[in-house]
Amino acid sequence: MQVGSGGIQSNQSLLAHLGAARGTPAEGPAAAAPQGPVETQRSSQGDSVSISAAGRAALEQEAADVTAAADVAVESEPREAAQADSDGVEAPEQEASDDSEDDSTKPRSASGEPLSEAESSVVRQLQSRDREVRTHEQAHLSAAGQYAAGGASFSYQNGPDGKRYAIGGEVPIDTGTARTPEATINKMQQVKRAALAPANPSGADRSIAASAAQQETGARTEIAALQRESAVAAREQATAERAAKDEGEATNSDKPLEDDDAAAVAQSLNMVA
Description:
By secondary structure, this protein is mainly α. It contains 7 helices and 4 strands. The chain folds into 3 domains: 2-42 and 50-84, no CATH class; 117-171, no CATH class; 175-252, no CATH class. The protein has helices at residues 2-22, 53-89, 91-105, 117-144, 181-195, 203-253, 259-272, and strands at 38-43, 46-51, 153-158, 164-170. The longest helix has 51 residues, at 203-253.
């Protein structure tokens, strides 16, 4: 840190001043004769160094200032390190961890490589289509009941992730007529419900429903025709029965009198005479 480095330089300067004041040699460029409060006296016996009271006070103050600056530098380093941590020095590691978590949840190819955004979009579309198709065919199967000729079958497409997704399907349904027109009507009504059971029936579904409706109409027409035929036959039978009865009555009126009847008639005539 710049503050620490500056504090060390000031401390070396102070040592040079103090060393000169005590008459001890100092190292480095600061060993030059001090100026100001430190005075050099020359004599025939050699140079001597003295320091005034004001100079000593100034040097002591300088020492105190430098020491305080050094303490501030030492204390500030841990605070700056902590501040750097709080300001996001470790953030890249956290982000890397988050990225690794995101990668773990992303779709991957069959080889294990993360998919591109475009490939991931295709996978999502295929997943949605798969759910839609399976729900569609299950609706057909549930409504068809006994007339379902088998389970649902699907056509598949391989996705970028190597999985197979259903993109189409069908449920076989028995749409043939029943033994009687009445049974055919009931059957075709259920076939129509099965064809239109999904939320969004396809064109093929609507076509099957229309075909079932036509067969239902045909069965109703057949029932109506049978009813007319039955009514005609009933009328003909009633007419024949009435004709037979009338013929019988006419025959009885033309029949000769029996012996008992003739005797009764003769007796009644004698009584009149």
